Amino acid sequence: MRVGVLGGGQLARMLALAGYPLGLRFTVLDPAPDACAFPLGEPLVGSYDDRELLARLAAASDVVTYEFENVSAASAAFLAERVPVYPPPQALAHTQDRLTEKRLFEALDIPTAAFAPIAGPADLSPVAARLGLPLVLKTRTSGYDGKGQRVVREQAQLATAWDALGRVPLLAEQWVPFARELSLIAVRGRDGATVCYPLAKNTHREGILRVSIARPDEPLFATAREHVLRLLERLDYVGVLAVEFFQQGDGLLANEYAPRVHNSGHWTIEGAQTSQFENHLRAIAGLPLGATDALGAVAMVNCIGAMPAADAVLAIGGAHLHNYGKAARPGRKVGHVTLRAADDAALREPLNRVCALLGEPLPD
To answer: What is the pTM of this model?
Structure first.
């Protein structure tokens, strides 16, 4: 079976690495001629909106997926007329507009922070009065890794934030004083079979995920799973889906979902019976889903900006290094380290060493 992938970044690269043992082959479309997934598949260099290239991708593929939710939903729909596309284009369309995404959560009775649309500057003050300050202003489209958002703490900052965000339609969200950030990764097959990975506790800095720690015994798992299953059913979903939550008290507020394999699930490569990448491919190919149990205590630390020395990482017990082959650049995810240990106590020391090596704060 040949799999087409929209996007040639590290997620496509890791999909291909997981797919080759299954006998799958890959064709990858990306605008960047040096996309890091290209060495693992047939490359197509060009725009995600290039209909000629999209037609070539469809002709070369038995099924198409995507690793990046900012590819055009129209492009996914164009492909879906020619070849099966999973996750379905409607899942992509909902997450590309933060207002549409929040309204979908609302329709499914999945709790979120209070929110309101901002169509223009005249809406800023009335919405701020209704939601209260501080609040978060986010562009409705094209936001990821902390981009496209501003925290507004004072009335005078509203106009400045509007200008800084490009004077485009926004989503305003009530500020959430959360205890933890958590994410649940689920997989749904073509036949509707669904499995979930343990909840992960996530630590962000400067809007970028730094550390994820799997929590197999997390008491909020059942609540998160209930929310995510409703979302999967509504979207008639196939593949891996991740939902990010804020913990507030004993409850969860949904922040956003990602219709793809997810950074907070990279620990599954060495830390779960079946990685999220293999399970995504199993799902879209119509194969049975694999078990999602964690293999002990596991964590993932992102390498941001530059890769550490391989010998320094691999000298740490239980550490596994993943280099994406990307050029170093400030704020860029260029690799990650996964860690596995017998239990939480045994995980602490190697996790602290990796965080110190990468200059990341030690998670609680």
So the answer is: 0.95
